[in-house]
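During the second year of the project, the team shifted from modelling isolated chains to modelling whole assemblies. The rationale, set out in the original proposal, was that interfaces cannot be judged from single-chain predictions alone. As a representative example for this report, we include one of the complexes processed in the last quarter. Its constituent sequences, exactly as entered into the pipeline, are reproduced here:
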Amino acid sequence: MTKAIRRVPSVLALSAAAFASLSAHAEWGNLNMPVGVTELSKEIHSLHMTIFWWCVAIGVFVFGWMIWSLVAFRKSQGAKPDTTMVHSTKAEIIWTVIPVGILVIMAIPAARTLIAIEDMRGSEISIKATGYQWKWQYEYLGEDVSFFSQLDRQSDEARQLKSGVDPNSVQDYLLNVDNPMVVPEDTKIRMLLTGQDVIHAWWVPAFGMKKDAIPGTINELWFKVDAGKTGIYRGQCAELCGRDHGFMPVVVKVVTKEEYKAWLAAQKAAASPAPAEAPADAPAADAVAALPAAPRG
Amino acid sequence: MAQTPDDAERSRRVRRSAIILGLVAASFYVGFILMSVLGWRQ
Amino acid sequence: MANSTTAHAHDDHDHKPHGIKRWLYATNHKDIGTMYLVFACAMFFMGGAMALVIRAELFQPGLQFVDPGFFNSMTTMHALLMIFGAVMPAWTGLANWMVPMQVGAPDMALPRLNNFSFWLLPFAFTLLLLTLFVPGGAPAGGWTLYPPLSLQAGDSFPLTIFAIHLMGISSILGAINVVVTILNMRAPGMGLLNMPLFCWTWLITAYLLIAVMPVLAGAVTMLLTDHFFGTSFFTASGGGDPVMFQHIFWFFGHPEVYILILPAFGVVSEIIPTFARKPLFGYESMVYATASIAFLSFIVWAHHMFTVGMPLAGQLFFMLSTMLIAVPTGVKVFNWCATMWKGSISFETPMLFALAFLFLFTLGGFSGLMLAIVPADFQYHDSYFVVAHFHYVLVPGAVFAIMAGVYYWLPKWSGRMYNEKVGKLHFWLSTIGVNVLFFPQHFLGLAGMPRRIPDYSTQFADWNMVSSIGAFIFGFSQLLFVYVVWNAVRSGEKAPARPWEGAHGLEWELPTPAPYHSWDTPPPRNVITQGAMH
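Output from the structure prediction step:
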């Protein structure tokens, strides 16, 4: 044991060195929550970091205390037990009151963010997302635009059992869909979530939000992507929903307001000639899917 | 081990408290089902 | 003391049946305790094998070994086996062995009921394991059985429900037995506040079991009627509410996680004072902290379901009550630290496991505190961060404490010492393995990997591979545990009555191995007060 303790610093140094060399490879560096691209996600990230550092501080104290005791009071080093030390009301009060204080300090900003999260007022676009086994349907409320969004073909081929396709050769393996949801930047979007068959959950880590899509219930969440943060953001269904739970990604394409208007107009134009005929799994990125519900997978 | 009056008294107490605890468990079972039947959200 | 020792040695041969009848008709608390522990060990390995199937599939992106449906069955069955088959029976087994010895009783209060509650278990798990072979496969909707998904199960559905009913009855009866034993069978002179903490934590656990196992039974009964008898408690199309199931389930489920961990607090509270050679610091505050944790466990259930869309007030309430749990839990950790402070510490295997518990359970507590922060939970929920959190509190938490308890009391049970070298090897491999296995899962969850998926995006590949390597190290090193115990029982060195110099408590006043009937004559009062040194 003594030897083991003496070895600790060198082991730590070694693993730190090993770690530093590994983190040159980008994916080893995925250690923390992404900051995200919405104001809520930034607030959530900062809450996450605050509570994390509190835990680190408490951890340094508690683990420090434990390690100190284990090193200083070893029987092998001739430590004699102080058997009279069995109780201290003062200590008990201190280590009850201080944690309560820390919790109050944490609870206040958490409550403030929570209130902001629940404030749905002032949204400019409402999109209803319905979870199916195993795809998402997006309906742009009041716009008469609606389509299905499911795993893209390349990923779908590669993810078959013993497919022989190397997932590394597939672009955005398992995180790509045929028809992404499209939203404008700098606009408060309200999502209405429900499930058709079982419970699903809609999650885009970069937006900071996740909520369940439950049959018979409509849940709400909102997000507002910062101006200038156009791009494609990816997430996944986060509630076990059956066999292909791992294969129903959520992909959101954030565009400028002008691009959004053009996209919406194109959708409407494409939808009007033949609304019911378009196949649900049209491969083209911006194709419009049929309105009727597809049968359950 | 011969039964003494003390032992008899104790086994009575054991049986009584076991039955009470069993009834508590059963009432939790029935209670939660009833609550769901009647609908706890009104 | 010497007198009572010899008296017990003579009682040893009274009506002990032999062969299979000894086990089938067992009413002796030690025999039943042994059966519980052996059963738990078997389930631990079976559940562990399923975990290895999961980690083998997750070793690399892409599907190499199993169909996604079977993968979901594995996660579901792994959880059911580990929770209801391994950890809970292991605690009941330890309670059977230790409670009568620690309170100065000859046996459990209700020996025949004890036999019944054990023998329900093999039937329950036969039913559950049978589902692996029925059309539609084993249940694949998660151990939480959320409808409507769980209602889509095939022929496994009724088998699973009845298996859960049997497990529930078994643990309720076991819990009743523990409560009546502790309340009625204590030796004269042993007040409740003289009891060792293991008895205290088990007493409180038993009350939790009696309160919440029927709730689970009620929930699955309603699932059963929804599936077969046309009710719609939980189906939206019939006017039911799937979220109601989650409320009922977690009203059971949260106390359930304390059922798994409170006895661990008890075991650790016995082991740390022994090897620090110093009485437990703040005994009474430990009892009160345990009781507060048990109480709080009833009002925090909805923190498992922050994302179902609750009213703001509800979310705030469950956030605050959840954070509050950190306070009594912190009190416990601080008391253990204070127990070691100014002690005289040695590092035998039981102590090593207890220390790993102390460090790693605390780590799991930190991630628990993070999960309580609702806005952050919207990110953590159902991600690998949660998987890391609850495995940290259950594996190096509950499972390590069970192993610590087995190493600690094995000499008393078997009369023989285990091999300290192999025990320590088992400890180091387990501790390194468990951290390599679960620590990277924090990273995966924060980076956005959902739980319960058979395949993942390539950005998660590196840490999944590390995690899987850890899983195989941890899994295979558990074979050493079986070897150590087997080897000790077969051919270990003879152990003295008090193999640990710092051990206090009535069980160490009995001869080694402990006589078949623990305390036929109650221990003298001076032994009780001497044993209960706090």
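The CA atoms of residues 228 and 258 of chain A lie 13 Å apart. Confidence is low (pLDDT under 50) at residues 1-9, 17-26, 275-297 of chain A.
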